[in-house]
Amino acid sequence: MKPTAILLLHCPDREGIISELTKFVTDNRGNIVYLDQYVDRVEGVFFMRMEWELDRFLIPKDKIEEYINTLYASRYDMECCLYFNDVKPRMAIFVSKMSHCLYDILARYKAGEWDVDIPCIVSNHEDLRYVAEQFDIPYYVWSIKKDHSNKREVEEAEMELLRRENVNFIVLARYMQIISDDMIREYPNHIINIHHSFLPAFIGAKPYHQAWTRGVKIIGATSHYVTSELDAGPIIEQDVVRITHKDTPDSLVRKGRDLEKIVLSRAVTKHIERKILTYRNKTIIFS
Amino acid sequence: MKPTAILLLHCPDREGIISELTKFVTDNRGNIVYLDQYVDRVEGVFFMRMEWELDRFLIPKDKIEEYINTLYASRYDMECCLYFNDVKPRMAIFVSKMSHCLYDILARYKAGEWDVDIPCIVSNHEDLRYVAEQFDIPYYVWSIKKDHSNKREVEEAEMELLRRENVNFIVLARYMQIISDDMIREYPNHIINIHHSFLPAFIGAKPYHQAWTRGVKIIGATSHYVTSELDAGPIIEQDVVRITHKDTPDSLVRKGRDLEKIVLSRAVTKHIERKILTYRNKTIIFS
Amino acid sequence: MKPTAILLLHCPDREGIISELTKFVTDNRGNIVYLDQYVDRVEGVFFMRMEWELDRFLIPKDKIEEYINTLYASRYDMECCLYFNDVKPRMAIFVSKMSHCLYDILARYKAGEWDVDIPCIVSNHEDLRYVAEQFDIPYYVWSIKKDHSNKREVEEAEMELLRRENVNFIVLARYMQIISDDMIREYPNHIINIHHSFLPAFIGAKPYHQAWTRGVKIIGATSHYVTSELDAGPIIEQDVVRITHKDTPDSLVRKGRDLEKIVLSRAVTKHIERKILTYRNKTIIFS
Amino acid sequence: MKPTAILLLHCPDREGIISELTKFVTDNRGNIVYLDQYVDRVEGVFFMRMEWELDRFLIPKDKIEEYINTLYASRYDMECCLYFNDVKPRMAIFVSKMSHCLYDILARYKAGEWDVDIPCIVSNHEDLRYVAEQFDIPYYVWSIKKDHSNKREVEEAEMELLRRENVNFIVLARYMQIISDDMIREYPNHIINIHHSFLPAFIGAKPYHQAWTRGVKIIGATSHYVTSELDAGPIIEQDVVRITHKDTPDSLVRKGRDLEKIVLSRAVTKHIERKILTYRNKTIIFS
């Protein structure tokens, strides 16, 4: 696989953007291997993901961002992100007591399914240390007191760790604590949560029990970026499974676990592949 | 097809109920052709649907209810409903302006898919009279004023019609009016609505627009019995369809229509087959 | 809605095609309202759908095809199709005895969901004449003898009708006859069939019975373009529904009907919107 | 949780069976906690699963089977299986080189989701030894030569191991070898395979490549009991996922992995819970 650059951008929709950008790449001997764009005609916004091979590209890798900014970004009022496929993202995992999402993530990591580094697993409980040890990944525990009196202190220690380990994004793999605004600001649209309901139904605690009480015939799981409003951030992926009157709260929890881990891992995959663009409170997911 | 009796019941769970009831039927030479039961172990409630052939049954058809009541219902504190497969239910359809659910229902009716009579279609608009005429079904219009000042009067006229036509249950096929408590009391768990969202998400008006605003990745439709609380009655059936960031409110409406008609018709099918038991705010759906 | 041109094309993948074509449109004052492309990297083929508004476009409508051919098609070895959104496609429907797909199609047509004309319904049986009459569409019957001795003659009469009515494409709405190669040659990738199984499982007759015999847990329906090989043409759309051991061949037929009509109508929608490109034996479906 | 007995049976359908069997249990002071039955009216066969608490049951545990045989089995021509919930099934896992199903199984096992023992993992390759070691489960490798000349010998060694470890059933977690008739005879309907297609489509090798070549819009996975005919045994569970023309054989493999592991684990769950009855080449799956 050759080294590539990946450009994700959005800007007010105007004629000729694709034409100019693809011309820019091909004129400079970049071979485009991925191009997808989308125009939100309600909002009048243009979104694009373009990936091209760098081996014959005339502009040096460390100058590409500058050239795009100078030539196009300000002219078209673009917000751009530039990535390189040979830079592995560094991912931290936050967990509490349930292992199913963690195992699913680590099994993919170990099998080489994701091109990612996992420098640390963070928890408020000791419970899953054995899983981290099975996979030889450092496991850090900071207990949060029931009255949350040490929460600020804990989060500072966590952020210190994340900075030291150059963590790029965080996966909340059934982490049962609310993330503070400070951490969200440091990782905007870079903290991925899995909520065990079909959002916006059943926000908050014990969604399976809520679903059972309401008597729904289908349950779901939702992966989203964390924002300061609870369970209200941009949705990345959702899926559902059919249930019946025979299901109990316990069997919903069991069935839900399989949904949660698959939905979370699909979201993480899209994030690692840099196929998600966020605009206001929604995601554009490139395929 | 032989004549059958269908017994639907629920009662506090106790040992021996199935044994006694099946013995009652077989001792009296009824051939059981359907038996399904379910015990809600959380609430301690027993639910059963039993259907048996009447051609050799020793108890006369018009005495069966009495015998069951005398022998079992009071002893076991049962709530029973007894139906006969040779009595066609009579169904009224309420519509407003959209034709997709109405066409889906009438196509099934005309093709003989449902063993049901449809004596009338009721609307607050003239728009769908042509559909009723295509299928030779009387179409009644009572306009409800914007300030709802004549709503009581309209509902009284409607109920008068329903009584005159011996209507057993009502299907709201995208009828955009709220049903008053009077009518609900006259048809408890016998008014089937289709709500164009995955309830309890997006209760109330314009659910597709709400879904688009929230940025969900899946939309749904929900069929439920109407109760006095808006969109909160016992859910009969739900289904969903995957959407993407490319969908607009308009395309959600288009995709949703196919969901709505199928979900509503599945619910009506179960109701006609007497396979739904309602307990508190939930349904038990026999298969 | 403004008048637009829709260009569907495929060609060997080369750098710069999008750039050139979008430049061609924007340089000539066409406003691009839809652009999607796809590169099959295994086969090295480029596919594109582009739609642009014609109200300010400098090239006259009847010259566009010529210009594209001259400037690009031969140079890039393109196969192109050009459509205009103000030209309604004319669709013939072929049926046998089952009404569910026909009703679903006609209900959409009558509700204005599809921008299409339906000049005729063709059948080998009288059974569904009443449906055609409900919707005021001419209904033609040519009986095919059991020994097929008059099949050639019948198809010639049918093709004569289709030509006279300027039919652009044919929908086989559960038409239970095999289409001859002559008709397929006249309508290549323009005859849409619904097969009542999840192809390639259960090719041929009585697929629901085959599915029941095999004991599958999910059944499906498949819409595809008709080619000379039975049930083997390019697949446009598929969907499935879960079943259980309790289902009988009859209940599979009932559940399958809902799948069939929705899957067929989705395929017809895509065809009418000119969002399908066919390459070898596969479809590219633009969203 | 109290100790229970689980009775699975089928027999020719006759009146009174449920009545007699439930009376037998309740008369002997067993509290029925699960009862589900199903009558295949096409074949005239009655199927039942009944579970009852043993703490007050009058018949000693080791006599129950005898009593049922004497009192009912021969009279009704029943085939019965009796299990006890406090006897853990012992499960062997066979693998080749892919880890996703193995990790999924072991994560559930480790989390206590399944009440099962796993005394051994068997493979024809060394590749997954590290996974077995992560979970401290003995890993046995017998290499099968390319010409299969030592296959009989290998299977004898494997069966010797299975007997020594009192293995009750085998899970083929993407084991890429064909199981010989000898082993199948020793474990009839007790070897669970996952086939990476929606059977009966794409039997045999490289189903994802076959699916890609055919251009299907949905792919599936199928879990079934192994019989002597390849990929033709009784189906336990299937599921599907939607794909598009953009998918490559590689991306189908990736998407399929998530299906495979979930479908296989659902089947294993049902098997462990003794909720599967096999009749001819089909399964009855109790819920």
Automatic annotation (TrEMBL), chains A, B, C, D:
This entry's Enzyme Commission designation comes to 3.5.1.10
Q: Which reaction does it catalyse?
A: (6R)-10-formyltetrahydrofolate + H2O = (6S)-5,6,7,8-tetrahydrofolate + formate + H(+)
Active-site residues, Swiss-Prot/TrEMBL:
D231
| Cross-referenced InterPro entries | ACT-like_dom_sf (IPR045865), Formyl-FH4-Hydrolase_C (IPR041729), Formyl_transf_N (IPR002376), Formyl_transf_N_sf (IPR036477), PurU (IPR004810), PurU_ACT (IPR044074)
Instruction: Write out the transmembrane intervals.
Output: none
Picking any one GO molecular function of the record gives:
formyltetrahydrofolate deformylase activity
Alphabetized, the UniProt keywords read: Hydrolase, One-carbon metabolism, Purine biosynthesis
Q: What class of enzyme is it?
A: hydrolase
Cite the HAMAP family for this sequence: PurU
Family (UniProt): Belongs to the PurU family.
Q: What is this protein called?
A: Formyltetrahydrofolate deformylase
